């Protein structure tokens, strides 16, 4: 089995984000893939998929000829529990997990075909507002199905907690440095701290997702649409909605009150809590955006949500 060349985006990002540990992961990757291929009786079925950041993803064939996907990630706190979520979902609205290797974190997963991303799928009248609302409805319907009580299977990683995220933001904004204060402003810093406190006592917790965007939903034959690449957290339902609302408010054609109501209703989540999570995500984005022109755009989109 020949090893496919690591996409340049993966090689670049892994080294930039993980430093020497990332380079070590890259150096070990051919041996890791070869070992997994032997362990799971796989053969490569094409070149690695491009466009990723810190995962090597390649199409394979199983011993019986079935097509599948092998994914080896450079693990961090955000992606470590992906196999846990996929095992808990058991194919209900997400790609199936066939195999998991605890030592490397590698996964053998269902190949979704044709695999077109929801974000780029052209529905009838694809440039109309109705088409954009259809995408929102499909996405929120899937994430509503995927939220469920977190029963961690034996041998799988525990989920990170959304409350830990709140603790991190609270620490950052309480002792914000000068640049963060400039980028966010005093009023938004105070409001972010208030939201952290308000969201600390969430309702029932389950498997939420922090990477809820339209490119992580692809077309399939088993179901019309399946979620790929989940980033699971132990969180309330509104957590999913906040992250999805942030992405759509920042980049989508719809915004404000109409978008907030649509997301909250489709997810079955409290609208004010969805809004609070989205505004915290906006604050985090502004604090991490150095370019003034990008930050100005985000600040304006945040203002429209603040007024919703």
UniProtKB/TrEMBL annotation:
Molecular function GO terms recorded: kinase activity; phosphotransferase activity, alcohol group as acceptor
GO biological process: secondary metabolic process
Entry annotated with the keyword Kinase: yes
UniProt KW keywords: Kinase, Transferase
Taxonomy, superkingdom: Bacteria
Pfam families found in the cross-reference section: APH_6_hur
Listed name of the protein: Kinase
